[in-house]
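Still learning folds. Look over my entry:

…
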Amino acid sequence: MTRLPEEEHPNKAFGWAARDSSGVLSPFNFSRRATGEKDVAFKVLYCGICHSDLHMVKNEWGSSVYPLVPGHEVVGEVTEVGNKVQNFKVGDRVGVGCMVGSCRSCDSCKDNLENYCPKMVLTYGAKNYDGTITYGGYSNTMVADEHFIVRIPDNLPLDAAAPLLCAGITVYSPLRYYGLDKPGLHIGVVGLGGLGHVAVKFAKAMGSKVTVISTSPNKKKEALENLGVDSFLVSRDQDQLQAANGTLDGIIDTVSAQHPVLPLLGLLKSHGKLVLVGAPEKPLELPAFPLLQGRKLVGGSMIGGMKETQEMIDFAAKHDVKPDIEVIAMEYVNTAMERLVKADVKYRFVIDIGKTLKTAC
């Protein structure tokens, strides 16, 4: 076992947790498992705030287990490795995304698609194979099997890398899988938030022409001037939509609120693909004729496997794809959650765990 000298035993951990569906987070002491022979333990330095964290702390999906320590965009520095760990050493820059376990034997796992394993273990609020409940990255340490650890390249800042482990892979994977990563394609991105702005950046880095489709006209200047999109459509403006009909090769739809799909299908060329990565609570209305007339596809996608997640991080480092972030202190997290409800962030909160998480809980 290789270990950095630590004042505290790595089993002792502290962070912030929600105790009930009020969603209010407060300091919390707990324990991590001892570092196993194939485990990597690391000191958490930054953790992104995902919109799903908000749903989970408030139990809006009905699956939350309290106390709940959120956070699945976790980055830091390795402090200890098990004696059978092959790919990481003490001092490495690493991260953990949305999952920390899978069966490793099903067809999905064999195809490097652990994210579709029926026994996938989420990074927080899920039952692990040993029966314990997983705790996320709003904490000082993490321990995970090395298979679920991502290496962060030296030229990618850790604070910017954090949101890529959820938001980044969520949009990168469908661009790759559905063949929307070819230079010269015209890609639409629905919604300009945490997911949408990263989708824009990856699509541009892949050489695509990008159109943002949004309900908010006031986001046009930001999209065109700061994110470098090629065009902007207001989804409620029928004249704009009509003028753009049949112009897009594919669309990444990041919106989780209820919204009409029919106008988006109209924007697609023949053989175009509409890919949903947002998850509206109520079923979307999907008319058949627009699919038949042009052989169009509607698909979905959910994060990505570990091999593809590493590929995404390496691509981001090579092409300087970095989310726009607002770094906050741990004590600000409840205010950040309130702002997240109002979409008052450009475009992703990242908690500076290393500098602001107080030891004395």
User: Anything to note?
Assistant: The first strand starts at residue 2 and ends at 3.
